[in-house]
Write a structure and sequence with these properties.
A: Rossmann fold; nine-stranded mixed sheet; B: 73 residues; three-stranded antiparallel sheet; 2 helices; 29% strand
Chain lengths: 225, 73
């Protein structure tokens, strides 16, 4: 299977994401001006500061040519995985519910974080156990997840809250401690922590690799089916 | 036409910028200040003002988290 990792002006984690994906499949970078997704099986929208994050994080990247193709890819059931700024881009693109606001303390938070797997029954978490605690770094200024209360209640009931911050960390103010969510059809997911920075025990944790491995397995089982 | 768009956080959403300003003002001796909210203003020249509302809902503001108001400059 092949991952496609988007690259916007201002992306900064796309090479880490590319190298992390290559542990579980083939992977190539997709330029923001290119509407052709090069036949990839899953799209990763990486972290960084796309288009300078001017106006609001992710607001401008949403209109890039490659995102038109990603929206069509997602509508056809393709797997799309947004990390940090990628999560913000997917929310702005309305491919995911909700929005990400500046952290409650108005400070950039950068630290290793416990993240609980709330729903292991997704293409992004199938190699994890329910309630498993993953250790994954997070580093962001705008990670406060918000959605209107009735929308969050529906997401909770529908298993769309996939990852939650473990108790005890510095709080970014996310409602319901939400760290990662999926869309209603379960083929698009975004999260604020950075699994691509946690794929080798050398850097403290390989837990993030489980999410990328889940995606690779999901694609391979689809091909086999 | 010269237009101004005022964008503010929606009622009920935590506004830490507004809270910080509200706490800072009494420290400078200004009392009796409450309900501070910080938003932003966009000024623009537009040939067709009828497009402003869509400009706001599609890009200038995120209607899920922000209210906007279009004013003649």
């Amino acid at each position: 299977m092949k991952f496609g990792v988007l690259r916007f002006p201002g992306s900064c984690d796309e090479v880490d994401a590319l190298l992390a994906c290559r542990r579980y499949g083939d992977a190539e970078l997709l330029w923001h001006h290119d509407r052709d997704l090069h036949g990839v099986d899953a799209v990763v929208v990486p972290g960084g500061f796309s288009y300078g994050d001017y106006l609001r994080a992710g607001a401008i990247a949403r209109f890039s040519p490659v995102m038109e193709s990603v929206a069509e890819f997602a509508a056809d059931g393709g797997l799309v995985f947004g990390i940090c700024n990628g999560f913000q881009v997917l929310c702005e693109a309305r491919l995911l519910p909700g929005a990400l606001l500046p952290n409650e303390e108005l400070r950039f938070i950068c630290r290793q974080m416990g993240v609980m797997v709330e729903n292991p029954d997704t293409p992004f978490t199938s190699t994890c156990a329910a309630g498993e605690r993953l250790s994954i770094p997070m580093k962001h200024m705008s990670g406060r997840y918000y959605a209107p209360p009735e929308m969050i209640d529906a997401m909770e009931a529908n298993g769309q809250v996939v990852l939650r911050y473990a108790p005890g960390g510095p709080h970014n103010g996310s409602l319901h401690d939400i760290a990662g969510v999926a869309n209603a059809t379960g083929n698009v997911m975004g999260l604020m922590p950075h699994p691509e920075h946690a794929v080798d025990p050398l850097t403290g944790s390989a837990d993030g690799g489980k999410l990328l491995e889940s995606i690779a397995r999901a694609v391979e089982s689809r091909v086999a089916a | 036409m010269r237009a101004r768009v005022l964008i503010r956080p929606k009622e009920g959403i935590l506004d830490p910028q507004g809270q910080t300003v509200e706490r800072a003002l009494p420290a400078l001796g200004f009392t009796g200040v409450s309900h501070v909210h910080v938003g932003r203003m966009v000024e623009l020249d537009v040939d067709d003002p009828s497009q402003l509302d869509r400009m706001c809902s599609e890009l200038l503001a995120n209607p899920l988290i922000e209210d906007y108001e279009i004013l003649d400059a």
